[in-house]
Each structure stands twice: as structure tokens, then as C-alpha cells.
Amino acid sequence: MADVQTPQVSKGLEGIYIDESSICKVDGQAGKLYYRGYPIEAVCKNASYEEVAFLLLNGRLPNKAELDDITKTMAKERDLPDGVIQIIKEMNGKAHPMDTLRSAFSALSAYDKEVTDQSSEANMRKAIRIISKVSSIVAAIGRLQKGQPYIKPDTTLDHVTNFLYMLNGRKPTQLEYNIVKDMFILHAEHSSNASTFGTLVAASTMADMYAAVTAGIATLKGPLHGGADEAALKMMGQIGNPNNTEQYIEDALAGKQKIMGFGHRVYKTYDPRARIVRDYLLQIKDSSSPEVRTYTEIALRAEKLMIDKLGASKGIWPNIDFFAGPIYLAAGVPADLFTPIFAASRSVGWTAHVLEYWQNNRIFRPLEIYTGKVDLQYVPIDKRA
């Protein structure tokens, strides 16, 4: 009989609630996602990224004057200090873009005079500053790694259009804009996932907001979290020919290999974000780019097989990461920028959670069960074997 006094360990904190929040609801059983109570489908259809930022930060939709104000403020805060651009240049070609983003973003704290001001007003200003500048860092990374010069932001453009302008040196087509706008919104927030928790752990110590978001960026890098979309596209590259799709998946399943982009810790049905993204696959499947056409066909064939084999029976459905790669490529975004763009999008969710958590802060201090020995005799180094 088990010892009732033995503490129970929840690996990965599964099933453990860390706090209350009114920011985001993920209904994994029904396949629903809500931002401040609004269904994600309605948010994507109707809102700009600036409007989503205001909603998540403030808990309500803005009026016209408020939306104009946050749009202008975000535009004003986009440009990067020369020192940050220099860090990006120094790391260009030597590190993964997520490592460059982490280092360049962390350096921003040196240029913010309000970094240690913990007033609610200053923290809101820093949140907007961070949201604006992370996207500029990502665009600069993409630009410089192509050997092209940094493009200063255009304050007359909205957030997403400006990001694509800074990245590609031209304004996007309507389809490119729609794809990236929806991806920015869909990745803006997702409750207490690993990177948000990492952000909150740092914030709970009363570290400044830059330190907290740096922790979020570091956590997001892993292929089990933000790096899954890049890993899924890499898998599609290994499949190569769409006609190889079914055999590749069958062999992977037989070998008990993880199929990146399928299954989710919370969703036990079709990821509602994936449904929105999948619609773009149908729009790009006849793309002029052979690469985009190939990846799109592989994605659709892999989706059908996986749903047939594991959907209803195992609750393993496609998530947003699986479809992200082909549509990002169609929008002119290279694969190694997928996760940095995720970070740029999620900066609003991270900062919103920090602002909320600081209203009733308590430092995170979980416990662990010690399984080692005790009272060992210390042996001097000259007597050790």
C-alpha cells in the first residue's frame, strides 16, 4: 500500500493551477480559444494587432481614440538603438536568430530610463515599448542575415505592414499581410504555457519587465514549444516529395517518433488556431513557388493520415505549428525566423500577464522531493579513490 505521506509529484506541473487570470481561456476539450472573452475567430476576422494588444493589456476593446493612441505610440517606439543593431550585426551568422533575439532584446534595458520604475503607468509604457521593439529586432535579424541593411521603421504603417516592410524592403501583398496579421494575433497569447510561466517566474522576483520577457524568449526557443513550427517544416523537407508523405508518417509512427505539429498538452480536439491557418493552405496550394506548393501538399496529406489514424482514437490533432511553415514561406518569411516571429507576437501576452501578476505578486517557490543520501562523510581529496 502506498505511503499516504509521500508527496505527489506533477511532472511538468501538469494539472497544477498557478494563479487566476482574466486574459485568456483555452478550452482544450471543446477546441475553443478566447482573448478576454472574445472567440479567437471573431478577433482574427475583425481586429488589428494593435487592437489585440490594447485588449490584452487593458482587459477591454479600445474606442476609436484609444486605438489611434496605441497605434501611434507603438509606431513611435519601433526604432532600435544603434547599440542593439550592432549586437545583431555581431551575432549575424554565428547564432540562431532566437539567440540573437534574446541577446539584442536583453540589451534594450540599457536604453530605457524607466527600466526600474515599477509604477503601473511606467510598466504599461514599457509593455508597449517592448511589443513595438521586439518586432523591429526580428525584422532586423532577418534583414541583416540576408546581407541587406537595416531599414528604419515607417511610422505611417500599421504594426504588421511595417514589420514586413522592415523585413523585405517592400510593402506586403494583401495575402502576405493577412497571413502574418493572423499569425501575429493567433500567437499573441495562450494562457499559462511554458514561456509565459517562465516570464512570470522571473517577474515574480520583481525583476524588471525586460528581464522577465528575456526569460520568456529563452523558454520559447525549445522545439517542444516555440520551435515546433520550424521543426515541422524541417520534417516536411525530409519528406521531400508529397508522394512520400504517407510512408514517412507510417514509418515514423511505427518507430514511435514524434510527429512535430501534432498533439497538444491542452487541446484534445482540433486546435482552433490551426483551423484558421489551414484556410490559408487552401489559398496558397496553387502558389507560383514550387517549394510552397510542395510543402502545402505534404501538410494536407499528412493531416489527413494523422487524423484518420490518431484523431478521434487518440485525441492527437494538428496544432497551429504544423501549418505555420508553408504559409510563412508563402508570405516571404524564412524558416529560421518562425520562432522569433512567435516571440514578437507573444510579447503582448507575456507583458499582459506580467502586469496582471504584479497586481498581487508572490514569488514562485515550488518544492521538490530530495532522493539523495544524507550525512555522508567528507573525504579529503588526497584520500579519494
Features:
385 residues; mainly alpha; Cytochrome p450-Terp, domain 2; 2 domains; three-stranded antiparallel beta sheet; 16 helices
Write structural notes for this entry.
This protein is mostly helical and 385 residues long. It has 2 domains: 43-223 and 337-360, Citrate Synthase, domain 1 (Orthogonal Bundle); 228-330, Orthogonal Bundle (Cytochrome p450-Terp, domain 2). Helix content is 56%, strand content 3%. It has 16 helices and 3 strands. The chain has helices at 40-46, 49-58, 64-76, 82-91, 97-107, 120-145, 159-168, 174-186, 194-204, 209-220, 228-239, 245-254, 272-284, 290-314, 320-330, 338-357; strands at 24-27, 32-35, 38-39. It has a 3-stranded antiparallel beta sheet with strand order 1-2-3. Strand 1 and strand 2 form a beta hairpin. Helix 5 (97-107) runs antiparallel to helix 6 (120-145), helix 9 (194-204) runs antiparallel to helix 10 (209-220) and helix 9 packs across helix 16. It is globular. It starts with 23 loop residues before the first strand and ends in a 28-residue tail after the last helix. The model has no long low-confidence stretch (mean pLDDT 93).
Please give the structural blueprint.
Elements: E1 24-27, E2 32-35, E3 38-39, H1 40-46, H2 49-58, H3 64-76, H4 82-91, H5 97-107, H6 120-145, H7 159-168, H8 174-186, H9 194-204, H10 209-220, H11 228-239, H12 245-254, H13 272-284, H14 290-314, H15 320-330, H16 338-357
Antiparallel strand pairs: 1-2, 2-3
Helix pairs in contact: 1-8, 2-16, 3-6, 4-5, 4-6, 5-6, 5-10, 6-7, 6-16, 8-13, 8-15, 8-16, 9-10, 9-16, 10-16, 11-15, 13-15, 14-15
